[in-house]
Amino acid sequence: MACSSAAPKFLVRRRPAVLVAPAAPTPRELKRLSDFDEQVGLRFQISNLHFYRRDESMGGKDPAWVIREALANALVHYYPFAGRLREHDGCRLAVDCTGEGVLFVKADAEVGLEHFDNPLLPPFPCREELIFDVPGSSAILNTPLLLFQVTRLACGGFILGVRLNHTMADAQGLTQFLGAVAELARGAHAPSVLPVWKRELLEGRNQQQPALVHDKLGELPLHLQKRATKFDTISSWIWKFRNVALAPDPDGVMVPMVVVNARGRNTAGVGIPIGYYGNAFLCPVAISTAGELSTNPLSYAIELVKKAKNQVDMEYMRSTADLIVLRRGQSTRIIAGMYSLADARRARFQDLDFGWGKPLVSFLLPYKNTNGEDGIVVPMCLPGPAMDRLVEEMSKLLHQPHVFPVKRSAL
């Protein structure tokens, strides 16, 4: 099928989708998801793309065959992915570990990597063809939990597209699974990190009183309050630029939700174990009026972003799970000026090597510009007029060192 007229045209020929089952027998059981996994806001499909060059050392091996075989072997260890999501006890979600398998599509495109932008940056032409929505596969319940598409290119490289039912895993959990597939594709006998289910760690405690989710900034050591990470700084710039672009009422509230991974954030020796691949992130909020955000220096926004991030530890996670239980069935309140900020670099998609080396680029990841300099891709979605103002404001920085161009999408 050819791309639409809105993007450079090339033909993608796909074989019929097949199911890839675990390469060996797996347990037949029902495994409950956590209260974090079950959130209404996670009941959707997420996808990403990974671009790989031709590698002469692979001796002409077919990447589709290599990845398919490794996928079947990885599913022996990660067998819940080969099952189907069901509802039980009302609206609770659980994986029926049927071993049916995940969807796999083999495809070919009549273009090489040179057909795409240099450097490779999202959005990519014909993205919907590179990770095709197999009819009937996108429902949350009773459908395959993963979809793989390997598109071989005329230059000998290939593009791997992966789609995941988000209730099953977050970005780091998906990378852990794909890392297992990559290791097996390179000849390993077993994954170096074995999967851990233990979704009960993030179960609510069915408290009758309101859950305790409190501000922990005052409890933090002084050096943690002073240190600003690259994410803090970039997020704060985005917050200020976005504020200028939208031109809201000065008294309007601008609320970024900061995605924070809870792994490694222990409380009293209790934390998320290595190998856990469920959803283990929170979205605490930073809050400011538009006027204060505009008139204050960048350090003002940075401190608010840090304050939101630094609240998160295991007790904060458990308290949030309590709150999820108390509000089960209620819709999430969304206010004007609210959006989310996430650092996808931490998921390490850029390290996935299936035998052809690391990807040239993966969606929402660091990249190198045409001069070989490191950069960070920051996708944003805004209304057309606001995007025009954003491009204008960011263009003022282009004459400063280490500031990279804005790529605007018509999508």
Key terms:
17 strands; acyltransferase activity, transferring groups other than amino-acyl groups; seven-stranded mixed β-sheet; 411 residues; three-stranded antiparallel β-sheet; alpha+beta; 24% helix
Unreliable sequence segments: 213-222
The chain-level mean pLDDT equals: 85
Helix amount: 10-25%
Strand composition percent: 15-25%
General shape: globular
β-strand number: 17
Count of helices?
9
The rounded Rg comes to: 22 Å
End-to-end CA span: 19 Å
Can you offer a commentary on this structure?
There is one protein chain. This protein has 411 residues and is α+β, with helices and mostly antiparallel strands. It is 24% helix and 18% strand. The protein has helices spanning 63-77, 127-130, 171-185, 222-226, 230-246, 290-295, 298-309, 314-326, 384-395, and strands at residues 12-14, 18-20, 30-32, 45-52, 84-88, 92-96, 102-109, 146-153, 158-165, 253-258, 260-261, 281-282, 288-289, 338-341, 361-362, 366-368, 374-376. Strands 1, 2, 4, 7, 8, 9 and 15 form a 7-stranded mixed beta sheet that branches. The protein has a 3-stranded antiparallel beta sheet with strand order 3-6-5, with no helix packed on it. A 3-stranded mixed beta sheet has the order 13-10-14.
Brief characterization of the structure:
The chain is an alpha+beta fold. It has helices spanning 63-77, 127-130, 171-185, 222-226, 230-246, 290-295, 298-309, 314-326, 384-395; strands spanning 12-14, 18-20, 30-32, 45-52, 84-88, 92-96, 102-109, 146-153, 158-165, 253-258, 260-261, 281-282, 288-289, 338-341, 361-362, 366-368, 374-376. Helix 1 (63-77) crosses helix 3 (171-185) and helix 5 crosses helix 9 (384-395).
